[in-house]
Amino acid sequence: RASHMPDALPTLLLLCPAGAFVTLPPLQAAHVAPRPAAVHAKAGGGLRLLEWIPSQKLLVGTAKFTWTTLWKTMISELAPQSPDGEYVRPAPQRGSGARWPANKPMVAGRYHVYVGNPCPWCHRVSITLALRGLDGAVGLTRLANDPERASRGGWCFDDSAPDPLVGAADLKAVYDAVTPGGAYEGRCTAPLLVDLQDGEIISNESADIIRMLNEFDEPAGSSAATVELYPAELAAAIDETNAWTYELVNNGVYRCGFATQQAAYEAAERDVHAGLRRCEEALAGSRLLCGARGRGGGGGERQKGARRATP
Predict the structure, then answer these.
(1) Active site residues
(2) Euclidean distance between CA atoms 67 and 100, whole angstroms
(3) pTM: predicted TM-score of the whole model, two decimal places
(4) 132 burial via Cβ count (<10 Å: 0-12, 13-18, 19+)
(5) Tens of pLDDT along 244-302?
(6) What is the pLDDT of residues 142-159, one digit of tens each?
(7) Cα 292 to chain centroid, rounded
(8) CA 129 to CA 142: how far, in whole Å?
(9) Could you count the other beta carbons within 10 Å of the beta carbon of residue 197?
(10) What sign has the CA pseudo-torsion 279, 282, 284, 288?
(11) Exposure pattern of 94-130 as b/e (b: 16+ CB <10 Å)?
């Protein structure tokens, strides 16, 4: 047994003749082949530009120039800039004091507004329709925002909200349809107010649209309370407030977002903060920027047929 081997080993060694032992050569270390130098295979896939372009600096410089040029071209179309990198709105939404066209009878169902949810200029048109109780008198289509589907800009139509004018696929086709010759040139912006019967644009300026809708008669038979948004006694104050809120806040945030130089951004940011502070001061003693004073003031409803002028 293994446990007896140490005791039996001396006896075995004595009994074995000397010739029984064979001298073995010393053990040699196992032979290990030397590792060959690493061979780097060519990377598969890709254009392998670095293999045939003589200068990496040239490649990087060309890529930077191309990207910058494309970016500036896109920005110049979507957000035009001054030489100082400040955003310059192509169509300021200040309003021109326009009124409802005298040659357009206020007929329910004849007029239609196109709006887009991501656009704050569209928001105030939608709010005006609700406050004036015009939801059943003036049609409304909410546009989808999808630059890949739209042929110009980003506004297009979903199947759930088709175009009522010509069945257009996007807002550009609506502009084409109401343009003599059918080839509109310019920015395809929303909101857009059109006359469905005559196939004409009434306005695509949000401030003018809300002034026009404020004059539009409520639907016949409606008993809903509506709001007079531009009472004569507050007209001057409203015009003044609109001027500074537009410049400092409404357009100020666009000037921040689209600025392409740091100084232009910081100037716009200061304006936004100044405008918000001014709003806070005005709202500290009133629920409204213009009109009723005091936290409990306001109201603003007027019944059908009554021209109660309140903000």
Answers:
(1) 119, 254
(2) 46
(3) 0.70
(4) buried
(5) 999 999 999 999 998 989 999 999 999 999 999 999 999 998 989 987 654 444 444 44
(6) 999 998 999 988 999 999
(7) 35
(8) 13
(9) 12
(10) negative
(11) bbeeeebeeebeeebebbbbbbbeebebbebbbebbe
